[in-house]
Amino acid sequence: MSDDFRIMPMMQTGGNTFTTEVRGTQHTYYLTGPIEAPENYVDLCNILRTSGPQDEVIIRINSRGGFVSSERMIVNAIMESQANVKGFIEYDCMSAATGVFLACSEHGWGEHIQFMAHCSWWGSVGKNPDVKSQTEFGIKQMEEEIETTYAGLMTPEEISQCNDGKEFWFGAKELEERMGNFYEYHAERGCDNPDCNECSGEAPPSIDSIIENAVASGVEQGLAAVLKKYDLVEKPKKPNTRTKKVMQNTDQGLNLTEHESVDTLCEALKI
Hints:
It is built from nine helices and ten strands. By secondary structure, the protein is an alpha/beta fold. The chain folds into two domains: 11-200, Alpha-Beta Complex (2-enoyl-CoA Hydratase, Chain A, domain 1), CATH 3.90.226.10; 238-271, no CATH class. Strands 1, 2, 3, 4, 5, 6, 7 and 8 form an eight-stranded mixed β-sheet that branches. The chain has a two-stranded antiparallel ribbon with strand order 9-10. The protein starts with 10 loop residues before the first strand and ends with a helix.
């Protein structure tokens, strides 16, 4: 194994979370079984939000889905994370679990997996007008989420069919083909972040260039401070602005106004 990687023993920090040091820190989280209430995923979201660019978070998925509210909370944390977040499908990746998987920056899956996309299941309780308004809002909201989540992975026609209730099932081979389209779609679309180097096509600065610029800036500032402290800064010469009254020199045809400097006068008279 390369010396660039420093592998430390894996430590279990929580029920579903394991931590390994590889340069930075590698966290592995097992998203298994039903996706339950949001309070069950606070630790995962905290890891995602506090990890730095040198860290890696791997989310291993074997879930048939669950609470959309929990899925959205995890997706938001993934989008905010500075770490490299990898999603890996162990076997089941269905419903809300697909949103978590697709939100990751890198993806992987086993040889035999099942990926299923469909519209959400939900209900409403209350007075007739309340149920009606909540239902109308919920349908609109879920249609927008499905369009956002599966854009690029599925065609617009398939997304429309999905919103109408059709389920879409993909195995490993078909998912691989569709993920190629997914990557192309998002590469063309960008991330809507004007400072993103990947979307702008600009390569991020290297560590060497960052250090070089920092050292140069520090030396420049330090030198300026020393020169100022010991009064070694070269002071600009003040021009001789003393004026003369109008003078006439008939031999050289010289006519100077009182606003011309003594230096100009001397030069003209060859003094």
